[in-house]
Specification:
Elements (H helix, E strand, L loop, with lengths): L7 E2 L2 E2 H24 L4 H17 L14 H15 L5 H13 L7 H26 L8 H50 L4 H11 L5 H16 L3 H11 L3 H16 L3 H62 L1
Antiparallel strand pairs: 1-2
Length: 331
């Protein structure tokens, strides 16, 4: 047998495949080590954001960036971006407000980033779409494709480039809302304990934010901001409405409605929160049971595509190698 001829399996060079798999495994190990050694404490960034919000409220600056006394480089860049978009007649108040609300729901407190989101919707289709048009119709990048595939590729690139900022933002909102939902029943239980202990509402929110800050940093962030706004805003109702606006969850809106009714009518806070906590825990259990019921159907495709071929390779691989060696020696 020629020593330079490597064994093959199903037409693939075994040594070549093993080398690629080893490289992928090594890369995965390096990425895992890097991720484990560069874990950052979410508390530092959260505390800085809360302090910035407290200073803004102390200075009487709630939403308008024009009233700020000190402008950072990001503010200056946002002002230039705003003037550029304004010159192109692309800025609308409702569009800016929707983008700022989505940024808040994603946990991004810098409202100036809304101008960059709007700018990305404009510039990405121009850049990526122009690149696709030049590549397809000028340089003939895919000569084997027909006119319909060329058109579909260019149109898909334009649509994807326009929707990319919204998709990225929606993904961050969904992930953050999921993390807030996980810790909400525990937060309500702590609020009940604080209310029964005689703490005020703002003190209770602050205590829950400190206790749950490390386990659920997103929820601790929102409760910490609510505690600060309860202490500084003129209308406490506005602080609760801001919480409902920052978190895109129906359960948070239920909590906010309960807190507003408690503030307005003087109903017992502990009993209302206890009922809400039990309801949210029941919903969480129902979602877990629903996922468990869907698991067999979901696992069918991965089982067919990944597990069964692996079993075939492990079981039939040695036999295929023996047959291949027999044919080589026979010739």
């Amino acid at each position: 047998m020629n020593p330079n001829v490597h064994p093959t399996l199903l037409g693939f060079d075994v040594i070549w495949v093993a080398t690629i798999l080893s490289a992928v495994a090594t890369m995965a190990v390096l990425v895992a080590i890097y991720a484990a050694t560069t874990v950052k404490d979410p508390m530092a960034r959260r505390v800085k954001a809360l302090n910035d919000r407290r200073e803004q409220l102390k200075a009487g600056i709630v939403a308008s960036t024009n009233k700020r006394k000190k402008l950072t480089n990001k503010n200056e860049a946002a002002d230039r971006m705003r003037s550029f978009l304004g010159s192109l007649k692309m800025l609308q108040d409702d569009q800016i407000q929707k983008a700022q609300i989505k940024l808040g729901q994603a946990g991004i407190r810098t409202k100036d980033l809304a101008f960059f989101i709007i700018f990305a919707r404009f510039i990405l289709p121009v850049v990526l779409g122009g690149t696709a048009i030049i590549a397809v119709y000028v340089f003939n990048a895919f000569p084997s494709w027909g006119w319909f595939k060329h058109y579909a590729f260019v149109a898909g690139t334009l649509i994807l480039a326009y929707k990319a900022p919204d998709i990225w933002l929606k993904n961050k909102v969904t992930k953050r809302s999921h993390m807030v939902r996980k810790g909400l029943p525990d937060a309500l239980d702590l609020l009940v304990i604080c209310a029964e202990a005689g703490l005020t509402v703002d003190a209770a929110f602050g205590r829950v934010a400190r206790e749950l800050g490390k386990a659920y940093p997103e929820l601790g962030d929102e409760f910490g901001l609510t505690a600060i706004e309860l202490g500084f805003l003129n209308e406490r109702r506005q602080a609760f409405e801001n919480l409902a606006q920052r978190v895109d969850l129906e359960s948070i809106r239920g909590v906010v409605t309960t807190m507003i009714q408690t503030e307005k009518y003087g109903t017992p806070l502990a009993s209302a929160l206890r009922v809400l906590s039990a309801e949210f825990r029941n919903d969480r259990m129902m979602r877990a049971e629903e996922k468990a019921a869907r698991l067999p159907a979901i696992m069918t495709i991965p089982l067919i595509m990944f597990i069964l071929p692996t079993l075939f390779v492990v079981i039939l691989g040695p036999a295929a190698c023996s047959i291949n060696d027999s044919f080589i020696h026979g010739h």
